[in-house]
Design goal:
Elements lengths: L10 H72 L4 H9 L3 H5 L4 E5 L4 E5 L14 H9 L3 E2 L3 E2 L6 E10 L5 E10 L7 H4 L2 E2 L3 E7 L4 E5 L16 H7 L4 E6 L5 E9 L4 E8 H4 L1 H32 L1 H14 L15 H36 L3 E6 L4 E4 L1 H7 L3 H4 L10 H17 L3 E8 L6 E12 L5 E10 L1 H22 L4 E6 L4 E4 L1 H9 L17 H7 L3 H15 L5 E6 L8 E8 L6 E8 L1 H19 L3 E6 L4 E4 L1 H7 L3 H4 L14 H14 L1 E9 L5 E12 L5 E10 L1 H15 L9 H18 L3 E8 L2 H8 L1 H17 L6 E6 L2 E6 L6 H20 L2 E5 L7 E5 L3 E8 L6 H17 L5 E4 L5 E3 L7
Parallel strand pairs: 33-34
Antiparallel strand pairs: 1-2, 1-6, 3-5, 4-5, 5-6, 7-8, 8-9, 8-12, 10-11, 11-12, 13-14, 13-17, 15-16, 16-17, 18-19, 18-22, 20-21, 21-22, 23-24, 23-27, 25-26, 26-27, 28-30, 28-33, 29-30, 31-32, 34-35
Helix pairs in contact: 1-8, 16-17, 24-25
């Protein structure tokens, strides 16, 4: 049985394969798309399921935490109500609440105000006497009075991972006197294990994470308890969960397994619960579906390929027969005749096209024969020696001129090598050139000196050897074209001798010179020109284009981007044509490392204008000096700073427009005068002496100076004065630059006001008050006198704001600030800390403690009386009638006496603040004075009479 021919060169095979490829791309793209969509939907569904599980888990943990915190708070309230103060009493109360042991498998403790355990249940653990103040939740309960879930740590007695919760214990007045501390042992069965202790799927699991501590609290895998999370930046997905992201993410866990994880936050503790499932298990169903789709696509593809191949083979059978007939025509010299057309369809039309092509080929073959005959006649008529050699150096063709050179017929030359016609030395030189053409494919131009075969004389030939390539681009022969240049070489030698003399003359001229012929071609240059061309070359060591002998100088002038050199081309043409007797031009020619300018002079060569002489000269120094002067004048005129130029003796030589704008003087008014006309009398002679000393030593001075305008207004100026010396170091001029900095000074004052004073009352703020308090402390150390701090808080201020609005409250605060300032001396300080809180600092009191306290009490009583006087506040709004509000309020004042040795500023403020709160608790409108080491004492009004 004959098997089908599947060779790649066969057309039906290639069409079948191309069709199959198109079909495969479609079916496999569809399969890939279906798998991709299915994979995406599966990921979304599995992620939603996981996130629901994580949400349930997080809600359960959050509820359990809330239940335990609530239990602690309830028991703590019961203990406070029972007023149990002794360790034995607390121990008894703990033992009466056994329900806590059901909630906290690690036990429960009662801590005193210092964080030391004074009661423990069960007592067998032995934790009484241990201090737990370093635990964050214990510190929060004792210092801040709030219940809190703590950080997982290793228990001091249990020596296993534990989780603590603490609630504050308060006395009857609400003051925190201790804490109730519940412990959960994470290494044994606990309330978290009820939720997170099971597995998820076959290989997945749960995990409970405290991101603020970077720890794993619980997990299906018990080995992960207290595991430290990877460092931030290692796994971005874990970082997203730690930052509060709730949802599902695919990533590689630390062991390198790709997992699908979902996380939900636990708001009560700031944790999150996560559910993780390996991707291999999560997407196992989708992979089975993908395999089935791929198998079905493969079977359909094979079936489509077979059907396509059979169909294409039947349809292309006539075309294959036609190809065989055409191949038979190419292998024979028989006359080309039309091919038979067996079907009247597209294939028949194709064969008809072949028949038309065969007719065209027959006509072209006859034309080629005719062209070969004409080419032979042309080659025989050319006044040059033309020949062809194959790769072995054997002659394949020689025209009539070459045959005459050898004195032989073409048949005597073709088929032989050069050794038949030349000596061994000449043959070696010829074959060296031939090898470069035949082996490397290069064209060769050489001058050859050969002995004439007919008369025995020698002649010089200019020979061009070109490679001949076949259809594949490979060199199979060379073509040589030689011209007899013996006579020309003799003329060139004579010209060379005359040019040596002329060149010597040109090279002695320092300017760059080039001689152009009537067409603008360079025929001679001097040595400075060559150096100039190399300096401006595109590559190091190589001359610039179109600057060497034999190139067109007009070409580089005409194509340059510089408009000046374009004008040079027109000027040269005008001199060549006789329209101008000569031509000159200045133009830039910048090098990579410097800017340069040149001048070009063009003069005719001889009376008949057979060419021109182009001479270049470097004028860079002159141009730079001119540009420098123009730039300096522009800078002087348009500078924003005021500029003054004086002589060595101080007379003003010139000023710019900015100086006139700043000072108000015109240029004519100040020329010849001394800059002392701007003197403001704000600086003493010492200032100006230091200025001139700096100028003499350093040659410049810079700083701020106050000057006077023509109008008499005094203004601040940023000034720079520079000494200008000649080459011998003598002072020639002084140059002063100045900028008006009035606006900057005003802004600095505004910034200082905002930084140190209250915007509403214009009293010193907290920052300025602390600075003055440090000064007062320093004065106390220096003089031994005492000082006092009064903390003033208004009573009934909030009802005023709530009833009449903040604008009325602001009016009251401004009025109170004014009354406070009238109650103290100028050396004392009244400051506003914010809201309705004011602070008064009395310095320079008596050294005697009793007398200084009496002084402070007297001022406090005076302030209380003034603040308690009725207020009449008038509120005005645009477009509305004025509104009058009458208000009465009092103040609570705390007074703290202090010396330089009595603690820090913060401690003194805390003492005064505490005394003020005691005054409020005493019924408001009262004064409490506190001394160092003693409690606050009331001040009776009659004591101050």
């Amino acid at each position: 049985m004959k098997l089908p021919d599947f060779r790649w060169r066969k057309l039906n095979t290639r069409i079948a394969l191309v069709t199959l490829c198109i079909f495969l791309v479609g079916i496999w793209s569809l399969a890939w798309y279906a798998s991709h969509v299915l994979h995406r939907d599966m990921q979304r569904l599995v992620g939603e399921q996981q996130f629901s599980t994580a949400t349930i888990l997080a809600a359960g943990v959050n509820e359990d935490l809330a239940q335990r915190l609530h239990a602690l708070e309830v028991v703590a309230g019961t203990i406070a109500a029972a007023s149990a103060r002794t360790p034995s009493g607390l121990q008894m109360l703990l033992e009466r609440n056994p329900v806590l042991l059901d909630l906290f498998n690690g036990g429960v403790m009662a801590l005193d105000a210092d964080g030391t355990a004074i009661a423990d249940m069960p007592r067998s653990v032995g934790r009484i006497g241990l201090n737990y103040m370093e635990r964050d939740h214990v510190a929060a309960a004792l210092r801040e009075g709030r219940a809190m879930v703590g950080r997982p740590v290793i228990g001091k007695k249990l020596s296993v991972p534990v989780l603590g919760m603490a609630a504050p214990l308060r006395d009857a007045q609400g003051k925190v006197v201790g804490a109730l501390y519940g412990v959960t042992n994470l290494s044994t069965l606990n309330f978290i294990d009820k939720v997170a202790g099971n597995g998820y799927g076959r290989t997945g699991g749960y995990v409970l994470v405290a991101p603020q501590y970077h720890l794993v609290l619980a997990a299906s895998d018990k080995r992960r308890i207290m595991e430290v999370l990877p460092a931030r930046g290692t796994i971005p997905a874990i970082d997203r969960f730690a930052d509060g992201y709730e949802g599902s993410v695919i990533f590689h866990n630390p062991p390198g397994v790709e997992i699908l994880a979902s996380a939900k936050g636990i708001p009560l503790a700031g944790w999150y619960a996560a559910v993780a499932l390996p991707i291999e298990e999560a997407f196992a169903p989708i992979r089975d579906v993908q395999r089935r789709v791929l198998v079905a696509a493969l079977l359909i593809s094979l079936l489509a390929a077979g059907l396509t191949w059979v169909l294409v083979k039947r349809q292309l059978a006539p075309v294959l027969d036609t190809v065989k007939s055409l191949a038979a025509f190419s292998d024979s010299e028989q006359f080309l005749h039309p091919l038979p057309i067996v079907r009247d369809d597209e294939v028949g039309e194709l064969i008809g096209g072949f028949n038309r092509l065969l007719e065209t080929l027959s006509q072209r073959k006859r034309a080629v024969k005719e062209n070969e005959r004409k080419l032979s006649l042309i080659l025989d008529s050319v006044d040059a020696f033309i020949y062809m050699k194959d790769a072995a150096g054997v002659y394949l063709f020689a025209n009539r001129k070459a045959c005459e050179l050898f004195g032989l017929a073409e048949s005597e030359i073709v088929g032989h090598g050069d050794e038949k016609f030349f000596d061994a030395e000449t043959v070696a030189r010829i074959r060296m050139d031939d090898a470069q053409v035949l082996e490397k494919g290069d064209s060769v131009r050489t001058e050859e000196t050969l002995r004439n075969r007919k008369d025995g004389g020698t002649s010089t030939y200019l020979t061009f050897k070109l490679p001949l390539r076949d259809g594949r681009g490979e060199v199979y022969a060379l073509c040589g074209i030689s011209t007899d240049i013996t006579e020309r070489k003799q003329v060139e030698e004579t010209l060379r001798e005359s040019r040596v003399f002329v060149q010597g003359v040109l090279d002695s001229v320092p300017s760059q010179i080039a001689v152009l012929d009537g067409d603008g071609m360079i025929i001679a240059v001097n040595e400075p020109w060559r150096r100039f061309a190399i300096e401006n070359g595109l590559e190091p060591g190589k001359a610039a284009p179109n600057t060497d002998i034999g190139t067109s100088y007009l070409a580089i002038c005409g194509t340059s981007d510089n408009g000046a050199t374009g004008g040079a081309a027109e000027g040269i043409r005008a001199v060549l044509a006789g329209r101008l007797p000569s031509f000159s031009l200045e133009y830039p020619c910048h090098a990579p490392h410097a800017q340069r300018w040149f001048t070009m002079t063009v003069n005719p060569l001889g009376p008949e204008r057979q060419g021109v002489v182009v001479m270049h000269s470097d004028i860079t120094a002159r141009k730079l000096a001119e540009d420098g002067l123009r730039l300096a004048a522009s800078v002087f005129t348009h500078a924003y700073e005021g500029i003054v130029l004086t002589t060595a003796t101080g007379e003003i030589m010139d000023v710019n427009e900015a100086f006139c704008r700043i000072t108000g003087y015109s240029r004519e008014e100040v020329l010849g005068r001394n800059p002392r006309i701007l003197k403001s009398e704000q600086h003493d002679e010492t200032f100006y002496a230091a200025l001139w000393q700096r100028l003499a030593e350093k040659g410049h001075w810079q700083g701020e100076i106050w000057n006077r305008r023509k109008s008499g207004e005094i203004y601040p100026e940023q000034k720079t004065i520079t000494v200008v010396r000649d080459e011998h170091g003598r002072v020639q001029h002084y140059v002063a630059l100045g900028s008006d900095i009035t606006e900057r000074k005003n802004m600095e004052e505004q910034i200082r006001q905002l930084a140190f004073y209250d915007a509403l009352t214009n009293l010193p703020n907290r920052r300025l008050f602390h600075d003055r308090m440090r000064q007062t402390l320093a004065a106390c150390r220096r003089t031994g006198r005492q000082a006092a701090l009064l903390f003033v808080d208004l009573d009934n201020f909030k009802p005023l704001n709530d009833t009449h609005g903040h604008d009325v409250g602001d009016l009251l605060l401004v009025e109170v600030a004014g009354r406070l300032q009238k109650c103290v001396r100028e050396v004392d300080t009244v400051a506003r800390f914010g809201g309705d809180e004011f602070v008064v600092m009395l310095g320079d009191l008596q050294a005697d403690h009793v007398e200084s306290r009496r002084q402070a009490e007297r001022v406090a009583q005076k302030i209380l009386a003034r603040v308690s006087e009725p207020y009449v506040l008038t509120v005005e709004h645009a477009g509305q009638p004025a509104r009058t509000v009458r208000h009465h309020c009092s103040a609570s004042i705390g007074v703290a006496m202090f010396l330089d040795t009595e603690g820090s500023e913060e401690l003194i403020l805390k003492r005064a603040d505490a005394a003020m709160y005691q005054a409020k608790e005493a019924g408001r409108g009262a004064i409490r004075v506190v001394d160092s080491g003693a409690g606050a004492s009331p001040v009776e009004p009659e004591a101050l009479d």
